[in-house]
Structure formats: structure tokens, C-alpha cells
Amino acid sequence: MLPPRHLRLRVLEALEDRVKQFRTREGIYPLRIPRDPIPLDDLITRVLADDAGGFDAATLKSRTLLTLRWDGVTWTTWVMTLPSGVKLFCDSDEEETR
Fold first, then answer.
1. What is the pLDDT of residues 33-48, one digit of tens each?
2. How does strand 23-24 pair with strand 63-70?
3. Which of 34, 38, 37 is nearest to 24 (CA)?
4. Number of other CB atoms surrounding residue 88 within 10 Å
5. pTM over 0.90
């Protein structure tokens, strides 16, 4: 089992590679967005394989932007800053993190 900081770094490196594939769209320049949402839990499982069970995606959060709660459901938007300085805006609920 790798130390948590090594696991975090492997996930961040995989996200850096994924962000390079994002494209800009007219009307929202300079923002770059993926064609489809990236399921963060799936990416973590793929990148870390056997070590994924011990990794908490919450350690990637730089800052929480907004939290909404209704009828027992919580939805949160947050920012993750990659080593390159790129900021990813993410959201999560009880079912998934994107």
C-alpha cells in the first residue's frame, strides 16, 4: 500500500492528462470543459486499482463552493486545483463524484 500522498499524486497526474483533452467552446472562452462529465470514482478505481479502496476523493478538494441539502439529499460543488494550476470544478452527491 502506497502512502496517501502518493495515491493523491497518481490521481492528480491522471486528471492532468484528462484535462489536456478538454476543449473550449464559443461563448464560454476561456473555460474548457469535457464533452461528458468525468466520473471521479471510476477514474480513481482505474488509476489506483488495488489501492483505490483506501483513497478518499475528498482529499482532492481545494475549496467547497456550494452545498445544497433537501429531503435528506446533499449536493456539493467544489474546486480541485491541479499541480499545473488548472482549477477543476466538481460536484458530488451520495451516488457519485464528477
1. 888 888 998 898 899 8
2. unpaired
3. 34
4. 21
5. no
